Amino acid sequence: MKRYILILSAASLLAAGCNKKLDQVNPNAQTSSSFWKTGADAVQGVNAAYAPMLLDGAYMRFTPILLDVRGDDIRSNSPWTAISGVGKFALGTSDASGYGWAFDEYYEGVARCNQVLDNVPGISMDADLKNRVLGQAYFLRGLYFFHLVNMFGNVALPITTPKSSSDFFSPQTTEAQGWKQVIADFKAAVDLLPATYTNVSGADANQLGRATKGAAMGYLGKAYLFNKMYTEAAAQFKGVIDLGVYDLMPDYKDNFTESKENNIESVFEIQFSTTVGGTDLGWQGIPTSTWAKTSARAITFGAPNFGWTDVQPSLSAFNEFQQEKTIDGQVDPRLDATMFYNKPGETIYGQSFALVYANSSYLNDVFCRKYENGDGNKANEYDWKSGINERLMRYSDILLMYAESLNELNQTSQAAPYIQKVRTRANLPDITATLAAMTQQQMRDQLAHERLLEFCLEGHRFDDIRRWGWLQDATKLDMLKARDPEFNNYKAGKELYPIPQGEIDNNPGFKQNSSY
């Protein structure tokens, strides 16, 4: 779905002369009550619910930063503390740049989903299309709220139309209540969404990029996994596998380029494009038709001379790729798809890496390659506009999360083939028998290694670390500090971001996270 339809509605009051009170709504202005009439309106409404994903606080730039930079596979030497403070666990409440924008845009997405869920049930339209529209709204609300609960902890539940003035402020809830809402939304989406859009009829027929049953099941399983509900998680991941819709791409690198978007490995991805929309960069606020639908990730993560280098892989992650050779004695091919580094014949944006960085400290450093346009099709990233889709969930993640769930259910041997399937794509030796004979703890350590190599620079590592309890384990925390000195600044509670101060000030009863 490479086009986006935004709903812009406004109401205005007509002015009147002296001593004459006039309280009328402009009949030509679009309002919520006048818009939701037809099936076409319903589709436009759910299209608009996708749009906040493309804004600066979301996947245009800051959500990848907020998810990536705190992991031990990533570091930041950015001069902007809104970025470098993420990895150093040094963000405060006085400046909500970055994390506050993400908070706002997730709730903007929630609000748009609420509009769909409030109004579409009352529209007379094709029943199957209505189900798909509602299913997408439930999925997107679940995804926006997944980010809110996961990143900020105790937040406000996504209420729909206020029933009274007392509903204007939604009360702060516990993380447990938040996760319950996330799970409920994804469950609803699973029941309503199709496995694909290739065999449907209607305005959404054959459109790529829309939420599917597999995406809803995958995220439902992930929500269960994050809450240690392993039986429920395993059932959802196995359900995705059994759909028969997904597989691994033969070439790992194809998951991060513009030419192979929406491929068979993609469970859900955010749609960016350099050819859709306007030419203005979409930052904050209400989108307009002049805003582009492009990503600023590439320039933000880009190597010196080609981008801002606000984000880099850690050297410990680089070294982890060297631990095991392929069956033909080569370096794990995922390294070359993930990082630029000085190796024989290495090119970067069509130039020799060695020549570009000769006589500088950059020569022996490593830089981000995933999601960069660095294979020579662009000279650099300084136009701020990348059209590479952000892959939020890949089939390899389903396989490894399923293996993790099985291991936690004491079914370690059954987990082995799913791990090896991911290793085989990377041309690594078949160690299925070795994996099957591991203890549960050995398998946990192996999965930590396998997931780092498969998902470096994809925003999973810190969530994995939290889920595994490493921040509360003194030995594991010492290991993290050795791998990434930024962890020396970690204090209990800093795994959550601060609630933006504006929310504390404006929403009665809201309390700041305890570590701030």
The main β sheet shows up as: 2 strands, antiparallel
Helix fraction, binned, reads 40-55%
Number of helices: 21
Order of strands in the sheet with most strands: 1-5
Radius of gyration: 23 Å
Uncertain runs are: 1-23
**What would you call the shape?**
globular
Give the CA-CA distance, first to last residue.
40 Å
Into which percentage range does the β-strand content fall? 5-15%
Mean pLDDT: 92
Strand tally: 10
Could you say which structural class the secondary elements and strand pairing correspond to? Answer: mainly alpha
Structure description:
The chain is mainly alpha-helical and 516 residues long. Helices cover 43% and strands 6% of the residues. It has 21 helices and ten strands. A hairpin with a 2-residue loop joins strand 7 (347-348) and strand 8 (351-352). The longest helix has 26 residues, at 127-152. The protein starts with 31 loop residues before the first helix and ends in a 10-residue tail after the last helix.
